[in-house]
Amino acid sequence: MKLQVALDVATLEDALTLARQTADYVDILELGTPLIKAEGLDAIKAIKAAHPDKLVFADMKTADAGELEADLAFAAGADLVTVMGAADDDTVRGAVAAGRKHGKDVVADMITVVADRVARIREVSKMGVSFVEIHAGLDEQAKPGYTIQTLLDDGRQAGVPFSIAGGIKAESIAAVQDAGATVAVAGGAIYSAKDPAAAAKNLKSLIR
């Protein structure tokens, strides 16, 4: 299982610092949506230039014009780009077409898909995405009763390649791996830590 760090910061300077601190312990550097909105596609170029040996994940959260937006991100150096799993099927297929053009990967982000999530995961998987990200956003995580176990259960049931994003911590990363995830996405557990490098190193050490 790969470890992905979400660079959920709003400036390129902070993103480069966090990437530098954690790069030795993670496989994928994710540019969060706020970072891309604040800094633009040049942020993708900068992170890739600084860490050419790492997979760079552009969390575009594309909801329309899938081929165009994915093409822009891939041309800027992204290795993986997200399209919303809730988007129109043609939007997903368009993003996949851009991925094939560049020889890169498209990930369907399942954020906001709660009802019938397993069914939708299976649908988008058939459209050619490399894997789905079963994702509970910060607002969903803040709701009473939220548990990452729901995401893990849906991943197991769907039976397709998936990643998990939704409050992964040292206490839960083993369960994520046991559920069969190909990627564990850690955000706050790393960027909110006193020592992000130590936090990333610890999470990586817990992957068997």
From TrEMBL:
Q: Name the top EC class.
A: lyase
Q: Which GO terms describe its molecular function?
A: 3-dehydro-L-gulonate-6-phosphate decarboxylase activity; hexulose-6-phosphate synthase activity; orotidine-5'-phosphate decarboxylase activity
Looking up Gene3D superfamilies in the UniProt record yields: Aldolase class I (3.20.20.70)
Enzyme Commission no: 4.1.2.43
Q: Does the keyword Lyase apply?
A: yes
Orotidine 5'-phosphate decarboxylase domain span: 2-203
Question: Which family does the similarity line name?
Answer: Belongs to the HPS/KGPDC family. HPS subfamily.
Q: Could you identify this protein by its name?
A: 3-hexulose-6-phosphate synthase
The scientific name of the source species is Saccharopolyspora terrae
